[in-house]
Amino acid sequence: MKKINFFLVLFLILFVFSGCSPKKINPCNTSNKIADKIYNDYKNKIVCFKTIDSYDLDYLNSKDLIIFGHLTYPKIKKETYNAIILSHGSGGIRRYHEKYVNLLNDNGYVVFQIDHYTARNIKYDKTFSKVSGITFMNDSFKALKLLKTNPAINKIAYIGWSQGGVGPILSHFKPITAAVNNDEDIFDASIAIYPYCGFTFPDNTPTHTPLLMITGNADELTPERACRNLFSKFFKNKNKIFHTSLPNAHHGFDNPFLYFGFTFEKLPSLNIINKNCTLTISNAGKIITLNNEEVTTPKASEKFLHRCSAKGVTVKYNAQATKKSQNIILNFLSRVFK
Q1: How many angstroms separate the CA atoms of 224 and 192, rounded?
Q2: Can you give the CATH number for the domain in which 92 is found?
Q3: Which of 58, 169, 245, 325 is the most exposed place for a label (fewest CB within 10 A)?
Q4: For 199-249, what is each residue's pLDDT tens digit?
């Protein structure tokens, strides 16, 4: 495994998390109209839509923001489809996400891939604190509401990676969806891929539709122990939560750019689990620790990450884990969409 010294960290971060891509242009700043409805024209396109730009679920001082997503259809036209909303991680939309778009389209799903970053002038977030996983979730629920305006779309699932996997997990719990939109719109299924699982709720918290968590047992950035804890706490709750652990799989196991593996000595390994390092949502919608410390700003989040992590993370591609996870995803969607 390659070990990266301090002077190369920033350079490798640029390549690994941003893929050396050119600066993205926000298409919503040009001639694209802001959509409040999706028409059934079977055209692949960029869709600009309104979201609420909030770090948590306390929307009192939050502002609206126009972001966009890439809407793609299967090649074979049908009268109705099921759809998948995709939420990237802290590195933004990367080339390997396109493989998932193609995989899902080829299996008959409409895909709406959200770009959470461009409108916020973020290229990648190596601090994991510029926005929160709940920021991504807020965007995804607005996308859900938009997709539901298309009469050709039936059920809708939510897939997220890493920080983008926080939303699929939280959307499983009814108090969260009640805070987001009074349960007016909910996902029919959710999948979190090597997510941050450091949230918890009381044992009797009611849940929604099925949630699948896919983790790697060698993940150091977001260790799977927190996901195991979450699964153990709620697996008896109407059998709606599922967990698959992939052997020898690191964080980013599905990203071929990490083929040789890299070790980043400065990145946080979120391996500390205690009341100071476990999050929940307050009645006011704020992110708090179990000791009632608010984590509602980038600065507070950086402090939390510093306290709740050790330094040093290895990320590595694993072709076998990638193939297995993709098969698991397709089987899960096929089962829950029956």
Answers
A1: 12
A2: 3.40.50.1820
A3: 245
A4: 999 999 999 889 999 999 999 999 999 999 999 999 887 769 999 999 999
